[in-house]
Amino acid sequence: MISIKVLRKQSSYDFKVNPKKEGSFDNNWKNNSRDWFVLYDDECEIARFRCQSVANYCFGDMASNGDTEHGDTIAPGLFKVKCFVDPRSFHGEIHGIVETKDLDGQWINRNSMQIVNGYQTGRWLIHDKWSNSLKKDTNTAWSAGCIIMSSSDLKSFNDLLHAYKIKSGDIILGEIVEVEK
């Protein structure tokens, strides 16, 4: 059975170049994409990719609606991935993160969304760091709660899922484990 484990380094929470300054694109890029996204077939590791799993795009319109600056980060523990969801404006084949909580304790539902006071507040996904305006990956993975990979790594991950005959809507179990620096 295919499964995912995200190994989140504690240093990923230390994403501000200057901790005394407000969050911004100029300040929130430190310790980027240091986490590991590991794909398993039963107990056998079949692929490992760098990823950004801590919400570092937590300012402006993307500020968390909870109590913690990076509170939209998926909490350590179990989560599920709904494979090959509608990309809308995202690049390539993407996946939804479902049936889990963020660090603020808010539920992410079966549609990869949080509903607060009757309104959708975001969409939690696994996607790449592609910029439509630049026509290439950005230098920094900007996460508002999503798990972000390079375009080439996301394509490799998707190629593996296709090889295992995983289709749109299939669910893969995952776990986020926090590890030392």
Q: Give the rounded overall mean pLDDT.
A: 92
Q: Within the largest sheet, what's the order of strands? A: 3-2-1-14-4-5-10-13
Shape: globular
Largest sheet: 8 strands, mixed
In terms of DSSP E residues, the strand content is 35-45%
According to DSSP, the number of beta strands is: 14
Poorly predicted sequence stretches spanning 5 or more consecutive residues = none
Q: How large, in whole angstroms, is the Cα Rg?
A: 15 Å
Helix content: under 10%
Notes on the structure:
This protein is mostly beta strands. The chain is 7% helix and 39% strand. The protein contains one helix and 14 strands; from the N terminus they run βββββββββββββαβ. The protein has one helix spanning 151-163, and strands at residues 2-9, 35-41, 44-51, 77-85, 94-98, 100-101, 107-108, 113-116, 119-123, 125-128, 130-131, 136-137, 147-149, 171-179. An eight-stranded mixed sheet has the order 3-2-1-14-4-5-10-13. The protein has a two-stranded antiparallel ribbon with strand order 6-7. The protein has a two-stranded antiparallel sheet with strand order 8-9. β11 (130-131) and β12 (136-137) form a beta hairpin. The radius of gyration is 15 Å and the shape is globular.
